Amino acid sequence: MSVPAAPLRVCLDARLVSGERGGVEQVIIGLAGAFSRLEDGDEEYSFLVDPGHTAWIEPFVFGRSKLLMSARPPASQTAAGTGPWTARRLLKAAVPGPVRAALRSRRSGEPAVPPSDGTIERVGIDVMHFPMQVGFETAVPTIFTPHDLQHLHLPEFFSAREIAAREERYRALCEKASLVMLMSSWARDDVVASYGIPKAKTIVVPGAADNVAARAPGPADAALVRERFGVKGPFALYPAKAWPHKNHLRLVTALKLLRSRGVDVPVILTGGQSGLDAPVTAAAQAAGVGDLLHFVGFVTPDEMGALYRSARLLVFPSLFEGWGLPVLEAMAAGLPVACSNATCLPAMAAGAAEIVDPLAPESIAAAIERIWQDEELRRHLRAAGLARAGEFSWHRSALILRAAYRKLGGRELSGADVALLATPPIV
Predict the structure, then answer these.
(1) Cβ proximity of 22 and 28 under 8 Å
(2) CATH number of 211-389
(3) In angstroms, rounded to a whole number, what is the distance separating the alpha carbons of residues 158 and 105?
């Protein structure tokens, strides 16, 4: 009589402080909920968390999923440890000039990735997934999700130390990983070209929209927006922390151009800003449009859903994205979108959004004005966006990843698993 194989034990790194990781937090929440709802298979899913930082993920972990407490404080994720890549070794690699200069300023020999604290090994984890841009050294097969290589394309937005640290850590984790996961074909191709990773070692697993954004709008949404955020009339929405690549300053210039044409567009901006909003607010005041910007800080999922359902349009003029989840969430909510032509965003929108040149404030302003004033265009974008968003689901993403976990864990793949891994990505 054969002995049944033990369940495949998968762990995803969720050691973050809520509100500090932007869209990465939503990706982990989406995967947690999808894995928890899977009814077939015998996999067990653990989410590695830091004590005291679990409330954000607890509602999405149930069924075969559970929390696994880390033995290290959150700061350990970027602490020194053993790693295969160092500044000295990187200087011999094919890296761009600005990165090479940054690496020379970093002390040679500093390690890139900390060692495991033994938590996942003690509980018998079979596959470890790092869905953030951090990780640790372990003999357990790993999947690493670097999301994007913005530091290579826009080095002016990073300090020399930040560039060196990212480059060391990303290369170390990519080299060690059994599989490198990206959320768009553009990001996958960029990592393959920049790091020389075999394409066969990569997988594209897109995200999906949060269900809370996809509910039909109702009077309660408008009331919440009025009472919580103080905006009574139509508004545009930009859910993004004011990091330089999010391009808030050119949005300010676009709002000034619109006001000069007699078109005032209030914009609600979400996200814990940690002071990043100060220069944007100052620029808006200097441009005479300070009254149009409403930085509202970090919002709850219910509040975010109400904003998606109540806004007149989403404006997303980002200079660089590995994925760009707000675009998809807006489309799923029936919210017309004006988004950048950068990186993966045009492929994500697939004709269901107004595309702008993020380097040209006039282009941003023109797209906002078209959507703001043209109800017929809003109806068209709403229908097209809903159709496009319907092609994505966290359930399908979880099934693709489960097939990859099974392969790395040495489990037999079903016919459906094989098909999922062979199907071309939809973005």
Answers:
(1) no
(2) 3.40.50.2000
(3) 14
How many whole angstroms separate alpha carbon 215 and alpha carbon 246? 27
Residue 354 CA to residue 386 CA, distance in Å, equals 14
pLDDT in tens, 140-166: 999 999 999 999 999 999 999 999 999
Question: At CA 238, angle to CA 234 and CA 243, rounded to 5?
Answer: 155
Q: Model confidence at 86, in pLDDT bands (50, 70, 90)?
A: very low
Q: What is the token pair recorded at 382?
A: 């709403």
The domain locations on the chain are: 9-208+393-422, 211-389
Distance in angstroms (rounded) separating the CA atoms of residues 294 and 313: 15
Cα distances from 309 to residues 66, 211, 234, 360, in angstroms, run 32, 12, 12, 28
Query: CA–CA separation, 346 vs 242, rounded Å?
Result: 22
Residue 108 has pLDDT above 70, yes or no: no
- Structural contact between residues 203 and 400, judged by C-beta atoms closer than 8 angstroms: yes
Q: Which residue has the tokens 């300070």?
A: 290
Over residues 46-53, the mean pLDDT reads: 96
CATH architecture of 9-208+393-422: 3-Layer(aba) Sandwich (3.40)
By the 10 Å C-beta count (0-12 exposed, 13-18 middle, 19+ buried), 102 is classed as buried
pLDDT at 85: 40
